TrEMBL record:
<dbReference type="Pfam" id="PF00903">
    <property type="entry name" value="Glyoxalase"/>
</dbReference>
<dbReference type="InterPro" id="IPR004360">
    <property type="entry name" value="Glyas_Fos-R_dOase_dom"/>
</dbReference>
<protein>
    <submittedName>
        <fullName>VOC family protein</fullName>
    </submittedName>
</protein>
<dbReference type="InterPro" id="IPR029068">
    <property type="entry name" value="Glyas_Bleomycin-R_OHBP_Dase"/>
</dbReference>
<dbReference type="InterPro" id="IPR037523">
    <property type="entry name" value="VOC_core"/>
</dbReference>
<feature type="domain" description="VOC">
    <location>
        <begin position="2"/>
        <end position="116"/>
    </location>
</feature>
Amino acid sequence: MKITHLVLLTDQLDTLKVFYSETLQFAVLEENPSSFKVQIGDTILEFNQSTPNSKPFYHFAMNIPRDQFLEAKRWIQSLVTLNKQEESDEVYFKNWDAHALYFTDPAGNIVEFIARNEDQTKQKNSPFNARSVINISEIGIVSTQVKTLARGLNNLGVPNAREGNEFFSPLGDVNGLFILVKKHRVWFFSEKKAVFYPVRLSIKGIGHIHFNEIDQFQYFR
């Protein structure tokens, strides 16, 4: 599952544009007073201005080359402060055979770099920089009915990546994942409780999916 375009909301549009384009150095594709787009590997990340009094935040992950985790960690540490969990600023997921680290952007989004020890389609860039990032590979979707939402996505052709439950369910594959989580579940490497905010995305070979309301989505070819 390849996420080609991910659209999120923010109340800090100008600050995030500076962060993603100048601090992290992702290329700006388009900008206007109410939105901007940056290229992150094979994925376009777009932020749109949120409605007044809304402070959206999300969890999403970026795939990085499996042999560059330490380089990537040194690079990102020079730019941001890493999140910690139990005094550790990185984690190895045995079930996924992957190493990951987390940081929080200026709008409160919980961003993950993950190096999966499976073959990747992009060659190593050395030294690591923004152009080394492969794609956006995960987006968290908050739900009160995780199993029901998972079945709906299964019906679109999105498979279960692992066995899920009523609190957590990953769908897709190592190239792209929906991370379905129960509302108010605390995000990993964060103290934030999961809250629903709208998400729109395009998936290669599947189409466009809009999560405009909690526990519901619209599908377009």
